[in-house]
Design brief:
Length: about 325
Amino acid sequence: MEEDNLSPLANHAGANLPHSRYLKSRRLSISAEACNFDSDGEEEGSGKDLVVVKHPKSDEQLARLNSAITKTFVFKALNDEQRELVIDSMYEKCVAKGNDVIRQGDDGDNFYIVDAGIFEAIVKRDGKSEVVFKYDNSGSFGELALMYNTPRSATVRASTDGVLWTLSGEMFRQIVLKAARKKREEFRKLLQSVTILKELSTYELENVADALILKKYKNGECIFKEGDQAYELYFVLAGAVEIRMLDKSNRQSGQQVKITECPVGSYFGELAWLKKDPRAASAYALGNVTLAELDVYAFERLLGPCREIMERNAKAYEKPLIEKFGSLAM
């Protein structure tokens, strides 16, 4: 399965903080190269040159940064090449306790990922300041002002000495935002083949597209197994998926019986979530399959208009299968 300043430390107030683990094996050479991007953010032979400053990192730093980026939603649309470019471009920023990283009302300049330390997001309303969120050794901030070209909506202050990974606003807009827009448009077009999503407005469909993850499976590969916990719903974009259940009449044999086949434009995996039960069937790829995966939390938030239809559809095909197999929760 496939899933798609020279030293910032020296110029910062927190430069003398003892962060030896961040400097271990660090190479102090920095390189720059010009990449050319067209309007979609893809490399081309003409267009705007984006100078990419590469900041070398130790293996330990790369591992931590890769892990953080994997958990950061705004990077979900990046392909491998774009992801590597973003990682190369990010640099460490040490912040001393009590210092502000960004201030409410300022223009947006950079995007930040928390590597270590505790940071508080503070919003000032009617002359009073309130802590609205706390980043405890993880998380990211700064994207809203860059995405919508608006002033910072909050101040982020270090509650302890800390370390951040920093990405320039230009890199964020030219690579991250353009990749997200392209992914949204591609998914929006693909989702037009999913019948049930025709109930959604264009705005709702775009929100679903933003939350989807593209998954590819080879012929015969298992997508999920009977008995698994249900965390995802799937839309079939290419190929087909076969749903199988264990033969209840001869459980010891372990033999599976085909229940149904899900073609392009259909969906599966919703029953276990609707019924809050483990998977009562397995799903396998028929040929090379491309799926759009939506986690159950996004399902609850985005697919409210479709739930009633899904429940009605489920009852229509569940009754005869329950009579034959005893239960059905995919």
